[in-house]
Amino acid sequence: MPETNPETLQSTRITTASGRIIAVAIVIACINYASSIIITLICAILIAFVLEPAVSLLERIHIPRWLGALLTLVASIGLLYLVVYGIYDRVIAFIQEFPTYAAPLKHLFANLENMVKNIEKLASGVVPVSSQPQSNLPTIRLQQESHWGQYLLRGIGSVYTFIVTVMFVPFLVFFMLTAKGHIWKGTLNLFSNEHRQQAETVILGIGHMIRRYVMGNILVAVMAAALITPIFSLMHLHFALLVGPLSAFLSMIPYLGVALAMAPPLMMAL
């Protein structure tokens, strides 16, 4: 049995690790470059998972799948339109009065900045001053003011790209729901015959898990909105019907949800 050289084995491991790191970097770069496409695809997949039970129910009562997918999608878009139509006036009023609510936040941030500067002055008094001569020339710093719209459009690229992305999602969801059988067969054909049954079980389990996760989060957000909104109304909080559901859905964001959900009511209360 031939002996393995330790140096050769170590160099092989280093080469393999380097190749994996390069492959991961390439994948991350591709995801970053095609972020809008990937986000659109993920949103369409999640919406298709949510609407699939309704399409399957219509298919059981002998309605063609394409017609059931079309009816379900139109009903969902109509429901979304009613929600947007109901909160449109409040959103416009909130946008118009936003500078009024943003002024206390600016004052709070200015106080925090002054507090940090005072702490820095106290810390500089404790640390001994360097004996090197310092220039008495004032330092001028130029900082360009950034508007909130720049941060909004940075990830999207432009308003046109955002509109095209939003309009493309319903078509993508419709074709996913309609061609479910072909997509399912094509996915299973990627596996060999002996592993096909196991792959089908795993994929079905993943699908049920994603559907339960999405529907569970939506249900929890709706229940939280139904509990929070009346409390905000009793507290006479401005825009309670808008802030309550917004805080409820923001709380669903992992890790940062609680902090983000506290921001809108605190801003209204200042």
Tell me the layout of helices and strands.
Elements: H1 6-33, H2 35-60, H3 65-126, H4 148-154, H5 159-178, H6 180-188, H7 193-234, H8 240-250, H9 257-269
Bulk shape: flat
What is the quaternary state of this protein? Answer: single chain
Helix/strand class: mainly alpha
Reading the helices and strands in chain order gives HHHHHHHHH
Per DSSP E runs of 2 or more residues, the count of β-strands stands at: 0
**What Rg is obtained from the alpha carbons, in whole angstroms?**
28 Å
**Terminal-residue CA separation:** 78 Å
Name the poorly predicted regions: none
Percentage of residues in strands: under 5%
Percent of residues in helices comes to over 70%
The DSSP helix count reads 9
User: What profile does the largest beta sheet have?
Assistant: none
Overall pLDDT = 76
